[in-house]
Amino acid sequence: MNNTRIPVIVIDDTPVKRRGVCEFVEETTLLELAGQSGDAQGAISLVENLCQKQEQNPTLAGWMVLSDLRLGVSNGVELGRMLLDIAPGLRVVIYTQDPSWTLAAEVFRHEYTRRGTQRTRRTRKSTGLHGYALFNNMEPAYLEHIASSVVFRKETYIDPEVLNYLLKRLRGQRLTPRQEECASLIARGLSNDDIALRMGFLNAKGGPNIGPVENLVSELYNFFSIEGAPSDPGRRVLLAHAYEAYAGLRQDPLFR
């Protein structure tokens, strides 16, 4: 058991909601409230100041951000990426009121732009955020569960209700055996080359032939309604979550 308490920054432009989330954080034994903000600019200034004060940990590794999706005229997903530019060690979790598969794709997307504009941030490599939670499920145990996933285990988190929303849309549809085999290997973190070898897709020299795998992956994205650029690794993260929910492998103890 890890005895280190996780510092948490709460960002919400609605005072009563922000106060509620902060109180839940303070009620846990795993988390500690390190700061809060009611707007995007205040959050940026807060994180910049914390980075300067944390001389031994300027990237804020092991810290977690809980941010509402809607922050007045700002967007929590876009703000999360700005904060990761400043402190790449942060683990950023977005919360909102309603489950949305479209939003899940935005949260985990790596190559992120708004209204078609090019990224001009300091980072050389864009990254997706780390979690998608629902405000209505907020309570101390829920927050501890999320933090354990995204900070200690370095996993991505998506609320089971979001996955259940997807499964309802898929009711009656089934993957083919080949599609399911490919999806299970993706969920285990294998690359397309490794999947080709495992599934017996070989070229004339006995090496991996990834063409059939790419076709299967494309079919899986269509099946699970995952849009985005083909090169975006965030889509693969979402696909792993979707397949594990579809196959009954992802069992969240808080929602059994």
Automatic annotation (TrEMBL):
Q: Which SUPFAM superfamilies match?
A: C-terminal effector domain of the bipartite response regulators, CheY-like
Which Gene3D superfamilies does the record associate with it? 3.40.50.2300, Winged helix-like DNA-binding domain superfamily/Winged helix DNA-binding domain
The UniProt keywords, alphabetically, are: DNA-binding
Tell me the GO molecular function terms: DNA binding
UniProt protein name:
DNA-binding response regulator
Record's keyword annotation contains Transcription regulation:
no
According to its UniProt entry, one GO biological process term is: regulation of DNA-templated transcription
